[in-house]
Amino acid sequence: MKEVLLARSSVTGPAARVALDRRALARVLVLGCTALGITPGKPLVGTGDGVTVLAALLDPELTVAPEARAPNFDVDVPIPTPNTNPIPRRSTTVKPHDPNGPAPGGRPDPPAGDAPDPLVVAEELRAALSDAAAKAARLVGAMKASKKEQKVLASVLTNLKQLNLGTGGPR
Question: Cα–Cα distance between 33 and 25 in angstroms, integer?
């Protein structure tokens, strides 16, 4: 744990002391952030040319007490170089959706008006499921009856063959 003094930095507002992982601070600086916003209990906000970075603070109990600091504090944290290759910005603007034409990508527009009442939708679903269960029960009954008919026909055919009545032609 080290205290980092920012001797060449300007300050506005009251003094603040926060605990921050040095790797997070280094990342904020590498991304080109030149201003740090510190509010106790909230994430650190680093802003720079076209970039904003949030960094989570550590437990406030980890901060170095002011009386524990040596008069000539020596800092050995390397200062990272700012990112000289920022992410290029989009050169063309996105056209807004024309409300009179078809939706982009073939997607349908959301329905107009209020969303349906969940209780009504649940009742409709219950009724549909009840109807489907009744149809399934009738289908199972029909299949069982059909299977019984096939067994009876097979039994009748077997009994007729056992009677050996012949081909049914003239005698």
Answer: 10
